[in-house]
């Protein structure tokens, strides 16, 4: 193909119970593509990069400061190690995810960019090499390499980060009947600021609770114990500290619980929140309430989602 478009979905990092080790890809049930897209085409001239999309105005004016340019340079280096040369390209990032939202915005750009580049070069890098490169680029932005957004964004579903025996992550079964009501208020929290608010040390009791909850959640997912899995979705690592950065977080939790939510949590570093529900009518009622009471400006949005089991993919040849 002379051109193609890659799509990478939004994702929830941590998923409450798994700080830096769990991540989930999102797919709104109305068919909306909540994620970033990257267009790529061959050109006879020099490399060019453009930006479009709802949140393009938040990107740097200089394309050399755009993460897609970093993807291009990193992929070119990976090809060079194999004795190959990157093609002359025109690329465009359609930025549909807000920066600093807790929805894996940078991961979506990186994953879409690298998926587009790899597909355009006949998939020279395998899946594991791609995820490692994605994590490396994510680390350049956040200050440390972590995969809880890039892995689910690339591979889909609910992913557990392993980083052992050459395995970055593996898929964990979840519950198809769960609706994930995800609301972004329209404000931003930087990952660095969200990490700075966390304590440098945790009590033995908190460590034991964290381990028990994570192990219990994974066990419940495999043994299909929905109520037990929901009961384990508790965050003792980040939420007690980050909740203060999100206005009305406690109100969201209380109202969602009234409507029968199984769990409420902070998506990644926030300020996006997610609520797990099993009744679509109640999920729609919560969505309406969040749009009226939690979203603060025109940048905000709320979607009822299922897990995106496919992850990043090629979706066409034009934006």
TrEMBL record:
SUPFAM superfamilies (alphabetical): GHMP Kinase, C-terminal domain, Ribosomal protein S5 domain 2-like
GO CC terms, sorted: cytoplasm
UniProt key word Nuclease: no
Pathway connected to this protein: Amino-acid biosynthesis; L-threonine biosynthesis; L-threonine from L-aspartate: step 4/5
Protein localization: Cytoplasm
Segments forming domain GHMP kinase C-terminal: 225-292
GO biological process entries: threonine biosynthetic process
Cited InterPro entries: GHMP_kinase_C_dom (IPR013750), GHMP_kinase_C_sf (IPR036554), GHMP_kinase_N_dom (IPR006204), GHMP_knse_ATP-bd_CS (IPR006203), Homoserine_kinase (IPR000870), Ribosomal_Su5_D2-typ_SF (IPR020568), Ribsml_uS5_D2-typ_fold_subgr (IPR014721)
Domain GHMP kinase N-terminal: 67-157
EC number from the UniProt entry: 2.7.1.39
Keyword ATP-binding annotated: yes
UniProt keywords, alphabetically: Amino-acid biosynthesis, ATP-binding, Cytoplasm, Kinase, Nucleotide-binding, Threonine biosynthesis, Transferase
Residues binding ATP: 98-108
Enzyme class: transferase
Family per similarity comment: Belongs to the GHMP kinase family. Homoserine kinase subfamily.
Function of the molecule: Catalyzes the ATP-dependent phosphorylation of L-homoserine to L-homoserine phosphate.
Name under which the protein is recorded: Homoserine kinase
Designated gene of the protein: thrB
